[in-house]
From TrEMBL:
GO terms for biological process: translation. This is 30S ribosomal protein S16. It comes from Paucilactobacillus vaccinostercus DSM 20634. PANTHER family: 30S RIBOSOMAL PROTEIN S16, SMALL RIBOSOMAL SUBUNIT PROTEIN BS16M. GO terms for cellular component: cytoplasm; small ribosomal subunit.
Amino acid sequence: MGTYNPLIEPAEVKLEEETIMQWLNNGAQPSDTVRNILSKAGVMKKFHDEKLAKK
């Protein structure tokens, strides 16, 4: 669902947001580390905003 390249400065993280959002919408529970990465990328905020908009 993404890649991490620590060999460049700064380290590069690429995330496939669509795939991640599908997994989260289907009930996936990210670990604390993954949740932190997703939060820094803004994915968790987007997920929560979409979740609240559905209600």
